[in-house]
Fold:
Amino acid sequence: MAELDRRDSEPHSLSTTARGDSFRNSIAAMLRAAGISVQTEVLIGHKRVDVCFEQFSFGKKRRFVLEAKNWSTPLDKTDLETIYGG
Structure:
């Protein structure tokens, strides 16, 4: 059986990049299935985000950006600082 990393929810049969891309694509596919127009790998400022979409409600546009992490444990403050500290 393949070894699991503390942060991984899948065996190491794929590279971390391939696992991350697969997870990002799954999230984007679910949003598209819900009728939401989604972009992946979008540059926002100096940071490339995994998923981006916009929604309009009450006459206002809201932009949502997602950084997909397929980890088995929740992100903590240090993880967030590493991701967004850029």
About this structure: The chain has one domain: 16-84. The radius of gyration is 15 Å. Residues 8 and 37 are 28 Å apart (CA to CA).
